[in-house]
Amino acid sequence: MVGKLVAGKKVVPVMLYDLSTCVWCNKTKKLLGDLGIEYSYEDVDLLNGEEREQIIKIVRKWNPLCSFPTLVIDNKTCIVGFKEEEIRKALQL
Amino acid sequence: MNEANPESAKAIEDAYQQLKSSAESAGYQLNPDIDFTIELIKRLLVNENRYGYSACPCRLASGVKADDLDIICPCDYRDPDLAEYDACYCGLYVSQSVVAGKKAIAPIPERRPPVAQRKNAVPLKTGISSSDRLPVWRCKVCGYLCARGEPPELCPICKAKKERFELFPL
Ligand code: SF4
C-alpha cells in the first residue's frame, strides 16, 4: 500500500487519497484520527511527476472523477467525500 | 500543510473582508461560519502562491492555468451548486437559506467533468460553445440579463430575488 502511515488500532487496510489544501479532506483525516484507527494517506496535490501520475491512476480506478477525499476501505469499499456516517458504518465503528 | 504560509493574520483578515464585501455586492453570501471561511481563504492563498492563481482548494489543480481556468475561484461550478445544493463545492459560498440557518451544508458531488471530457469540450468549429445552449434570464426589475442554468439567487445589479426573473426569449 502506498502513502504515509498513521499509527492506530489496526482494523482493515484504510487508504485515504486527499489534498493538503482541502477542508473536507482535513475533516476526514481528523475523523480517522479521532476514531483512533491505523490508516495511510497520500496528499495527492503535493506529489510530482511519475509518482503523481501513478497515484492519480489508482484514484481514478476507484473514483473516475478523481475528486477528494477518496477513501478506500479494506480494498473494496470506496467512499467519496466527507460522509461521516458512511465512513463510520463501513469501518463498523 | 507543509508550505509556510506567507500571509499574516492581518493580510488574511483583509482578504476575508474584501471577499465578503465583493461577494455581497454581487448578491452572494460567504459561509457564515467565519473560522471555516477563513480556513478556506488561507488555502486559496496557499494555492495562489503555489500555482500563481487561486485554484479551488478542494480540487486537484494541474498547475497549468489553461487547464484549470474552470476551477479558479469563484469556479464555473459555483452557481449551479448553489442552486442545487445551497453551497459551492468547498462551502465557501452558501445560499441565503444556509445563512438564515434554514439549511445545513452537506457533501456535494463533484460537478466538474473528468479530464478526458474537459479536453473534448472545445468549442465547435461554428464558434458555438456549449454555453450558447444555456437559457437566458431577465431580471424584471432592472433588465439584467444572464445566460445560466437558473437565475441567480439575487440579481447582482439590483438585488431583486430569483423569483423576479423571467426566461428571455431568444
Ligand atoms: S467550489 Fe467554492 S471555493 Fe472552490 S473554487 Fe468554487 S467557488 Fe471557490
Largest sheet of chain B: 3 strands, antiparallel
> Which fold does the CATH topology of chain A refer to?
Glutaredoxin
Strand content of chain B: 5-15%
Compute the number of structural domains of chain A: 1
Q: Can you tell me the residue ranges of chain A where pLDDT is under 50 for at least 5 consecutive residues?
A: none
Query: In the CATH hierarchy, what is the superfamily of the largest domain in chain B?
Result: Ferredoxin thioredoxin reductase catalytic beta subunit
The SSE string of chain B, one letter per element, is: HEHHHEHHEEE
The CATH architecture designation of chain A is 3-Layer(aba) Sandwich
Alpha carbon gyration radius of chain B = 17 Å
Architecture overview:
The complex is a heterodimer of chains A (93) and B (170). Chain A has 93 residues and is α+β, with helices and mostly antiparallel strands. Helix content of chain A is 37%, strand content 23%. Chain A has three helices and five strands. In chain A, strands 1-3-2-4-5 form a five-stranded mixed beta sheet, sandwiched between helices. In chain A, a hairpin with a 3-residue loop joins strand 4 and strand 5 (77-80). The longest helix of chain A is centred in the middle third of the chain and has 14 residues, at 49-62. Chain B has 170 residues and is mostly helical. Chain B is built from six helices and five strands. In chain B, strands 4-3-5 form a three-stranded antiparallel beta sheet, with no helix packed on it. The model of chain B has no long low-confidence stretch (mean pLDDT 90). The A-B interface holds A 19-25, 44-46, 56, 60, 64-68, 80-83 and B 1-2, 36, 39-40, 43, 46-47, 57-61, 90-91, 107-110, 112, 114-115. Iron/sulfur cluster (SF4) is lined by residues 40, 56, 58, 71, 73-75, 77-78, 88-90, 92-93 of chain B.
